[in-house]
């Protein structure tokens, strides 16, 4: 019985002692070259961004598509229930004192 208690105490003590040797400090390494990351990541990040297809478009119509936002804002104050996101309630914004 005492050997079992001694073995358990030795096992618990060695676990606590070795646990601190395993832990290491986490160090943040940036990926984007703009923020100090490796310059070799630039082409990879560009290809991933182009594959997603979002973002500003090039050419004469270089503005992003905001039609969904404009539709949502137009439906915000309407009292009809046909709009997407319209609940039929009126929003009252109090004026600041």
Structure description:
With 97 residues, the protein is an all-alpha fold. Helix content is 43%, strand content 0%. It has 3 helices and no strands. The chain has helices spanning 2-22, 42-52, 67-76. It is flat and about 80 Å long.
- SSE class: mainly alpha
Question: What's the β-strand tally?
Answer: 0
Total helices: the number is: 3
The level of helicity is 40-55%
Instruction: Catalogue the unreliable spans.
Output: none
How much of the sequence is in beta strands? under 5%
Radius of gyration: 30 Å
How far apart the termini lie comes to 78 Å
Task: Please state the average pLDDT score.
Answer: 74
- Overall geometric form: flat
The biggest beta sheet reads: none
Helix and strand sequence: HHH
Topology of this structure?
Layout lengths: L1 H21 L19 H11 L14 H10 L21
What descriptors fit this protein?
97 residues; mainly alpha
Compose a concise summary of this entry.
The chain has 97 residues and is mostly helical. It has three helices and no strands.
